Amino acid sequence: MKKFKRYTVTAALPYANGPVHIGHLAGVYVPADIYVRYLRLRGRDVLFICGSDEHGVPITIKARSENVSPQKIVDHYHQVNKKAFEDFGISFDIYSRTTSAIHYQTASDFFKKLYEKGEFIEQTSKQYFDEEAGQFLADRYITGTCPYCGNDSAYGDQCEKCGTSLSPTDLIDPKSTISGNKPLLKDTKHWYLPLDRHESFLRKWILEDHKEWKTNVYGQCKSWLDQGLQPRAVSRDLDWGIPVPVDGAEGKVLYVWFDAPIGYISNTRELTDKWELYWKDPETRLVHFIGKDNIVFHCIIFPVMLKTEGSYILPDNVPANEFLNLEGDKISTSRNWAVWLHEYLDEFRDRQDVLRYVLCANAPETKDNDFTWKDFQARNNNELVAILGNFVNRALVLTEKYFGGLVPEVKHLTDYDKDTIKEIGKIKTSVEKSLEHFRFREALKNAMDLARLGNKYLADSEPWILVKTDKERVQTILNISLQITASLSTIIKPFLPGTADRLCSFLNISSYQWDETGNAELLKPGHKLGKSSLLFEKVEDDIIERQLAKLKSAKTINNNKNKDMKPQKSTITFDEFLKMDIRTGTILEAERVSKANKLLQLKIDTGVDMRVVVAGIAESFEPEKIIGKQVSILINLEPRIIRGIESQGMILMAEDPSGKLTFISPAEKAENGAEIK
What we know:
Blueprint: E1 6-11, H1 22-41, E2 45-52, H2 57-66, H3 70-88, E3 94-97, H4 101-116, E4 121-130, E5 135-136, E6 142-145, E7 154-155, E8 172-176, E9 184-193, H5 199-208, H6 215-227, E10 232-233, E11 235-237, E12 252-254, H7 256-271, H8 275-280, E13 284-289, H9 295-309, E14 324-326, E15 329-330, H10 341-347, H11 352-361, E16 369-371, H12 373-403, H13 415-436, H14 440-461, H15 463-466, H16 471-491, H17 497-507, H18 541-565, H19 574-578, E17 582-592, E18 600-605, E19 610-615, E20 630-634, E21 640-642, E22 645-647, E23 650-651, E24 653-655, E25 661-663
Parallel strand pairs: 1-2, 1-13, 2-3, 14-16
Antiparallel strand pairs: 4-5, 4-9, 6-7, 6-8, 9-10, 11-12, 14-15, 17-18, 17-20, 18-19, 20-23, 21-22, 24-25
Helix pairs in contact: 2-3, 4-7, 5-6, 6-9, 7-9, 11-12, 12-14, 12-16, 13-14, 13-16, 14-16, 16-17
């Protein structure tokens, strides 16, 4: 592995339209903080950069819904999240924002340099314009009927019912969410970054030069490249954002995906006048910590921006995580199905490290994972209390009891003692290796193995029995136990920084550097230990029940809210109903549609004929598990081309407020083609 002089570590800029939740922590901020704290313990020159992402359409929508300015929205959530990160102990060197003056200047200069080098292409296209509001409409300000599933509340960029990506012009009967009027198509000019020009560079740089990247990151990049890249707009018609800094661009701002990653650079500029060393020196390692929804921006788009600018280094690694679910359901801010960081800090005072531990131990490193409050309780009680806390408490209490809190002298080392001492160094090395390769779950397990080693050593040696007959032997046992504790104070520090600081106070020491640990010579005989107490307390059942009840209440409120949000559609006549020909049918074949994560191609026996139907159910059902399933199908729906496939009908599904899909099937098996009336 190449050695670097310095490190620039960035964590994804949280969007300033809401608070931070545990999904953000598990996916980005906890692993990033662990890595940075480890580098600092190694004595590395590292900057840890983050800040609020404060531009874009969702912020303007939230501001409009609350009848306040976008600036007021971002000011509020910037402070909420900044304080939550500080109270939780995420050790950013700077947490700034993309509405700062230095960011405006940095992003504008970046755009102008690419513009002057001819790196953009200008294109005029038709975009929806609201005449009453007097403005062009961003995709999220347009709703209409989805051409694929018939959802009449689809947005201009995506149908949230079937998951299909859309363009505003795909919508049937589009409407402006601002005025409610039908918008008009009007010419508008924008600047595009031609990603397709850089495919060969990206293929070599990622697929050949960075095969060591995590499989989920590498695989998503390969998928994007194999589909073929297209030019991507870098400007928007919007009044909230950084103005496009060229003549003729009045009323246009930099697209938030172009503006936001430059925030890493502007925040570094704000932090230090030596910022160029951390962004332009090839002896600096640039590492981006992000969630999987940001992989394309940090692995394809931002690197193209940096490369075309010409003076910046490229990211050496992008260890993106997958998503964390909550109690078996996808975290949803709109449904309040989340554990919010600021609320956790209020309700679990001084237990920051417990959440850090659970989120790291259960991190969604290569696939989605699930947080449950029962698992939170079990890991606290069975691991932090029973393993780490138990070992430290026994070592310190026995030393106080038998030797007055003074580190005893080693009298004689047995082979078992020597093997145990060697194991300290081996465990330290294994933690290092895991951290250097961004395997944080594995690294935490290895770190806890040091506490397990200590517990086993004490249990095997039984100093509480030997003290009656061989106090000199007890001296050696407790000396080695304390040396393990001293190494623990450093090895657990990246993961549990508050706990490590308390452990140092128990041992009456300042923190060691990483390379000092892993041996049995840290504490000198005669060293006076400090006053100790329990490192962790049990989490009782009533605490967990309160959290589960809180979630249940949120789900109940949300379900009622969803019912209110989806009122009955307009009435139809009986004759209109009779026009629908719905039959029973059986799925004979099912396969995924290429390059469409949410679509399945089904072959269905309708009793009338065999036909193909494309359905947006791939995220809910595995193809092989629904073959033979009897379904209800609307057979006289006008055929529609979806992803190049002619879909001849629509299967009927029930969708609950959480988004769970269920087939509408006869209670008893019916003959294919039976009419549903």
